[in-house]
């Protein structure tokens, strides 16, 4: 058992192993994304029944909800990777954390953007200060904070560690922020516009949605892997194994 | 080399009720090197900044070609190069960018700048950000302009700071050559400059000792 | 321990020698709050509704601005290096620094808040809530802010970056505190909100010094 | 002249190398504006009334914060000394510095303002007024701010002191600009207010560089 | 004098893909003075900070009494005094206040502090704000603690910067006395230290020269 753990530890820390592993995995992951995406989008956009309240505009849910969920999970992943780096000084973890930040922020932007587009037909406005929207916006700010800090520090080591500390502080705060924002929104007098009460979902709508959510997580994995590989290629550009690899 | 004629007469300066110098006369012409020496706190930096026209908190006259410094300041500025304690090297720029800025008052051709960096042993670091250079290397960036600016009068405050042995002897050679070409130098340094023949010393008073 | 104590004493001497350090945040606080009526509307009934929020936002910004210098000076002049070289506990140091900061920013703001409340026509019932919420809330701002200040201490464009990092973290404090004031103004109970603020303060005292210490140690390997 | 041009080029290189310099004020602007609904009330009808004022106050604060570094870096690393030693015209230099500052702070804010206007439910009629008032008003903020930045460049707690010095000077800009936006929202004409802003801008371009130059020369006799 | 046993084995450090040192061994015991020398950018400051425990960005072991430095850091810190490029002197404080802070890790009696300031020729300036002192005088404030801290191991980075001739010879005497008392010193300086008998030199590699 212990041996297995130490082996895993060394493997996880090894860029070479990561490259080899992801060489094998990437095609499969991409295939899964393509299939899942195709299925989810075709079913969601073409075959799922029309919503009796919102007509066809609800179909943006197939992008909006997965993006929102992934954006939140990505932050947690980033914080975990950061913590691993802080404790064990595994360079790989820092590279993964660095790779996640812009991806998470992008998903966050997608969720906000699709939500805003969706808001226009449903609420008649692009933006209201609803609890969920607000906490999503704050999440975006947290992402920007981490990225800005990373950019601002020249020494690479330091920037990794600083970003890790910040994302840990952030991840502790996310539940507090979410909670307080929820509470704020429900205790003040209610806004004139509200998220439409969600009709219990038709099964034909639900399945494509679940597929899309799963697919988006896989997409997140792919993007993180690709960006991490870039980091590896850059940082290990002098190493022997990489030169051999590139030659063969 | 343009003609140099800097004269200071009857300078008087006090800081915090302590007289730094009084009835001080300084004059400088072509081919001269004046080292201002004295213990810490004697007023060397103060005197240098004053002669460079950067400090007007004194009594007495500073003349450039017989004219008060302030009235011909722009011309004077063209003719003298000032290097203070602070090196004006931006850490977020590369040595070549810094040098370009430092010499922008004179029109210096681009390749002369690259040569100057090579001259101060920074070849290969031209495109590295200065924050990644060591203390002495940053200092060399600032010194590189001595090779390229045409100003005949140099005013240097502790230019030997942070330089290694080679750097020091390089700078001594520069000073000497400049003086031989007919330029002149006003310098403070705790470093002995004996190797330069035309050296003149200007000793500033010792700091007052307090009784306990 | 001795160095921590010496540092506290030194910081208070510095503040005493440069009263701007506590006067400036205070003035800023007053000015920002005073700008609102100019920018929005001078009608007292209208102001009464926004007073609590405006005062709290101003307090938050004033705290934020004064955070910038918290560790920067110490990094620049080598004091932090000496501190790290001394091998003493960082936790105590971080806590001490946050305490000094609060005495310099949060405390004067809290004491001055009734004046602003009056100028912005805050309902009478809300004065106590404003005072208590500031008294409990501003230490949280100092503690969280210290994390940001420590992370950005060695950097060039520290001030703004710092704001970016910690403004989102300030949101819960802002929400609970301004809601306390708002409810007090309507004559409703607000003990719950203050309780939350208290809980947050307890959490912050325990954990933020750890983050500050870790962030300061980053400056080790510059 | 050549040094002024070299300085402009150098400053733009520095900005390009450190995008935080223009991104951070922008983010700060967005964040501060987003704090208000949290602190005050999220009802769109209510927000619509304060939106113009809130956006302008946020813009003003964002500009203020980014001013701090305008001359400080140059003083600290000796660039200003070199500049003074060069004997070139201070006027051009001051104007150039303010221009760079505006490109980095005011311009991005102006371009982003419609987004914030939307989030704060600004009345549709007021969008144009907001945009124009920012386009004319933020250069004034940069120019006036440069005076404060020059005065406080050599000081320790520059940031806050700077705010204290120039916030009062910003008040006229704030009043005219927010009144323009407010009137536009009610469907009333607002050309008059913009006219005043324009006149102020013209004045500021002519005179503030003189003040900046004088303030920078104070650093001569340190 | 407490026993000193600092060992560094197989140190390796690179910056920006340039190896500063490799397979470097350093050891230091009582009564030794090691001067780390080398040209600008050789890595002297880096090595010093690393031995002081202020930089962990390297490979190899640093041992204090046979134990890894990080595990006995608090004890180690009590025994060594570190002075870097930055002097940690606050300009808004007076010399005596600064010195009090600088020595607060050890309990030093108050009158020893005043004597130390007299020793570095700052008598009379004890209550002046440091911003009104000259470059060299500020440096002396930081140096004053050499006279009063009981730490046996001194790590000094370019301590001669900005000192005048008297200051330099004073500091040399201090170093010599400290070593004679059984203390030890690790120092970087571009200054020659020949006068001290037990001097050992540690030469760091020359900077890589680039071909043009
Ligand atoms: C900018 C605008 C919007 C943002 C930022 C936003 C944000 C979010 C977030 C963060 C989630 C994830 C679920 C969670 O964590 O609770 C979510 C889910 C969802 N959103 Fe939005 N949203 C926006 C607009 C809208 C609009 C206009 C609608 C439809 C009227 C909508 C309907 C939904 C639904 C149905 C879900 C999934 C159900 C659930 O998980 O609760 N959203 N949104
Ligand atoms: N912050 C940094 N980031 C990256 N590289 C650095 C950094 N600081 C120094 N270096 C590199 O490390 C090398 C050694 O620097 P160091 O400061 O140790 O030199 P030094 O021997 O003390 O030189 P000097 O005599 O000029 O003080 C330099 O050549 C520089 O390129
Ligand atoms: N900003 C200041 N305000 C008041 N007095 C000052 C200031 N700067 C320097 N002084 C005083 O002027 C005297 C001379 O300072 P100056 O910096 O000219 O000395 P210096 O000869 O250059 O010394 P060093 O060799 O240490 O550089 C000092 O003793 C100091 O007391
Ligand atoms: Mg001097
Ligand atoms: Mg060095």
Helices and strands, with pairings:
The complex is a heteropentamer, with one copy of chain A (248 residues), two copies of chain B (212 residues) and two copies of chain C (222 residues).
Chain A: H1 2-12, H2 15-47, H3 61-88, H4 91-123, H5 131-152, H6 156-187, H7 203-235, H8 240-247
Helix pairs in contact in A: 2-7, 3-4, 3-6, 3-7, 4-5, 4-6, 4-7, 5-6
Chain B: E1 5-15, E2 18-29, E3 33-37, H1 44-51, E4 59-64, E5 67-68, H2 73-79, E6 80-83, H3 95-102, H4 110-119, H5 135-143, E7 153-157, H6 165-180, E8 184-188, E9 199-203
Chain C: H1 2-17, H2 20-39, H3 44-67, H4 69-76, H5 79-86, H6 90-104, H7 106-119, H8 127-152, H9 158-185, H10 191-218
Describe the structure.
- The complex is a heteropentamer, with one copy of chain A (248 residues), two copies of chain B (212 residues) and two copies of chain C (222 residues).
- Chain A has 248 residues and is mostly helical.
- Chain A has a domain of 159 residues.
- Chain A has eight helices and no strands.
- Chain A is globular and about 60 Å long.
- Chain B has 212 residues and is an alpha/beta fold.
- Chain B has one domain: P-loop containing nucleotide triphosphate hydrolases (Rossmann fold, 3-Layer(aba) Sandwich).
- In chain B, 27% of the residues lie in helices and 26% in strands.
- In chain B, strand 7, helix 6 and strand 8 form a beta-alpha-beta unit.
- In chain B, helix 3 crosses helix 4.
- Chain B is globular.
- The C terminus of chain B is likely disordered.
- Chain C is an all-alpha fold and 222 residues long.
- Chain C is 84% helix and 0% strand.
- Chain C has ten helices and no strands.
- Chain C is elongated, with a radius of gyration of 18 Å.
- The two termini of chain C are 25 Å apart.
- Chains in contact: A-C, A-D, B-D, B-E, C-D, C-E.
- Chains A and D meet through helix 5 and helix 6 of A and helix 2 and helix 3 of D.
- Bound molecules: protoporphyrin IX containing FE (HEM), adenosine-5'-triphosphate (2 copies) and magnesium ion (2 copies).
The ordered string of helix (H) and strand (E) elements of chain B is EEEHEEHEHHHEHEE
Give the overall silhouette of chain B. Answer: globular
Largest pleated sheet of chain B? 5 strands, parallel
Strands of the widest sheet of chain B, in order across it, are 6-7-8-3-9
Query: Uncertain runs of chain B with pLDDT below 50, 5 residues or more?
Result: 207-212
* Percent in helix of chain C: over 70%
The shape of chain C, in one word, is elongated
Instruction: State the fourth-level CATH superfamily of chain B.
Output: P-loop containing nucleotide triphosphate hydrolases
Please indicate the count of domains of chain C: 1
Question: For the CA atoms, what is the radius of gyration of chain C?
Answer: 18 Å
**Class from secondary-structure proportions of chain B:** alpha/beta
Strand share of the residues of chain B? 25-35%
Helicity of chain B, as a percent range: 25-40%
Number of domains of chain B: 1
Task: Name the biggest interface.
Answer: C-D, 43 and 43 residues
Query: What is the overall pLDDT average of chain C?
Result: 88
Radius of gyration of chain B: 18 Å
| CATH classification, class level of chain B | Alpha Beta
Task: Tell me the quaternary state.
Answer: heteropentamer
Overall average residue pLDDT of chain B:
88
